[in-house]
Design a protein that fits this description.
12 helices; 2 strands
Amino acid sequence: VPGLTLISFGDPDTHSSETHIVRASDGYDMHRLEQVNQISRRLRKGEASVHESIRDIEVVMATAPIYPWYLRLMFSFVQSFFASMTLFHDSWREGLLAGGLGIMVGAFELLSSSHLTIGYLLNVVPPLIVALVAALLSDHICFAAVPMAASLNLLPGLGLALAMMELSSNNVICGTVRLVSATMTSFMLGWSTTVGYNLGMAILGKEGESTGLSSECEGLSMLWWILFVPCLSAGFAVWFKVHWKQWPAVIFASTMGLIIQTFCDR
């Protein structure tokens, strides 16, 4: 379940079980996940003993992250900038603003992994600040997509996909928990964005106006997507700590997905 790992050990002789609840980070480290999966496969095939597997897992956990924190922070700009251009059809001006605000959101997310209090405010404070800044600049930019692009990493899309996978495989409890968690995250992001927007409009003396929320942005030509989509995929790969050798597969999969979605929308 989100934030927790439940581990149960059964004893067939006494017909009893022991369950441990281990707190887990909400982040993703796909490189370490691949390494642990390889260790598990060797153990199942009998190519390694239990003690050797435990030693290998300790080595994996002791190694430094594949990408340093400052590189992930830089790529949070890349993510928000190119997501603004492709997924939300913004122009260069909105893209630069979304990228700058994306660095702030990325800093909050990195701090939340080591500071529990910041983690509680992760889905409230950054979206509120993003919406407030975008609302204050709403006379010069297209507001509609900037908050979404800047808060891209906070959107519960992956959590919702995992919930559907769990429910489809009859893991009702885990799937339901993930679904409720994704839904509540969406509510908090929406509430924070609305509060930030209304606060910005109040500061500008434009209370009650909602044109920025419903306006459509004039995006760039889709030919730019040939350059933007690989850069966006690389940003996701760095943020989720995917090894650089797997980047071509990530770029190919994301490109195919975006092409299919684009033609289906038409």
